User: Fold this.
Amino acid sequence: MASVERFMRAIRVSEFGSPEVLKLLTDVPVPLPAENQVLIRVHACGINPLETCIRAGTFAWKPTLPYTPGSDISGIVVDVGRNVTTFKKGDRVFTTATITGGYAEYTVASEDTVYQLPEQLNFKQGAAISIPYFAAYRALFQRAHGKPGEVVLVHGASGGVGIAACQIARAFGFKVFGTAGSPKGLNLVLQNGAHQVFNHREKDYIEKIREATEGEGVHIILEMMADVNLSNDLKLLTTGGRVIIVGYRGPFEINPTDTMTKEPSIIAVSIFNSTKDDWKEAAAALFGGMESGWLKPLIGPEYPLEKAPQAHEDIMHKSGATGKMVLVV
Ligand code: NAP
Assistant:
């Protein structure tokens, strides 16, 4: 194994603002792992919409400047702190958090946020597990309390969280409907767990979904774009149905009338509210999926480190998602 270098290429953010504040530096010191941490040579890092809000300075939590974004990396362990017992040099791993940021050649992560990456998944797939799959699992089971046999609509199924949600729901015995906004996206959603797909750019697609339930409505909606869809979602639910707000891009208005006849629940999900037990439960389910083969992250657009600004631009403004966006380091 190559020895660890002293300096690395990494994206640094020194001021909050537009994607151009993501600067590639070549002389960032390689971090040292503290006693419960591992140092990882990063091979890929997932890009999440949340990272654009943190970079813009509009998220509730702000990192201390300068910082390197990125929590969902995969790579190879190159050094371990003296109290680390679970990992050794050479292990293939992925993380659910990093301490020094993942848009970089090296990062350190606390041992309890690092997981072994099974051989059958490549590094890009490893970087697509954390936020998407843990959020999708939390939405479906820990927030919606979904039960096999229920009908789930993954409203926005072609991106990182959506594909994860379709794979999970299908594996656990739900009837899965997914939406996408492009022909390629629709196909991919169908290949990744959905029983039926609908185009959320078509005018009458909500009616088509209702018809597919024979007028009964769906039990659960995992909603990626609540500001656009929440009002329609409430009309599409069956009695006692639940809409889980996973994502949104702005404020929204609903008519309380739509909540009266069917007593629906509107429930938010935030992966960052997960307790240690929640992470453990989700990890057990997801590792079951990796072992039996149903958990297979679908990789969409790939960018080199220097194109991080373009990636941030695209994840917010480009439509026609085809899986998880990743940086290849
Ligand atoms: P992504 O990969 O960029 O995917 C975005 C998805 O939204 C695509 O499937 C896209 O479909 C779909 N979409 C676009 N317009 C839509 C519309 N009008 N109706 C329904 N869907 C529409 O993003 P992601 O990583 O999957 O994340 C999705 C959302 O969840 C983001 O808002 C993110 O911030 C949020 N999120 C929240 C949590 C949490 O803990 N609450 C965790 C992770 C992510 P097309 O491109 O095919 O049109």
About this structure: The longest helix spans residues 276-292. The pocket of NAP is lined by residues 48-50, 131-132, 135, 155-162, 179-182, 185, 200, 224-225, 228-229, 246-247, 269-271, 315, 319-321 (CB under 6 Å). The chain has a mean pLDDT of 97. The first strand starts at residue 7 and ends at 12.
